[in-house]
Amino acid sequence: MAICKALESVIGSGVEGFEASKRSKYPGYTVPKSWINFVVFVIMLLAVAFFGQLMWNELLAKFITVLKPLPSVFHVIGMYIALDIFFGN
Known about the structure:
By secondary structure, the protein is mainly α. The protein has one domain. It has three helices and no strands. The protein has helices spanning 2-25, 33-63, 73-87. Helix 1 runs antiparallel to helix 2 (33-63) and helix 2 (33-63) packs across helix 3 (73-87). The mean pLDDT is 82. Keywords: Membrane, Transmembrane, Transmembrane helix. The chain crosses the membrane at residues 35-54, 66-87.
């Protein structure tokens, strides 16, 4: 996803600036890039879950009578994972 790459780049730039200021005080200080990827993943998952629930409940469930509103964000995350498993690349 292009949004994930852009967000990862922005967060990575911020972390690199933070590391540069810390390296002047503490030589050898570094933050693993896996933490950046994890933070981006969590931010994107929360955004997809929040907006997914909003779109599902406010648009789809109101106009398509067969669909029921999703009660929690965890249902959206489960649905996202299931759709990715079945229809993902």
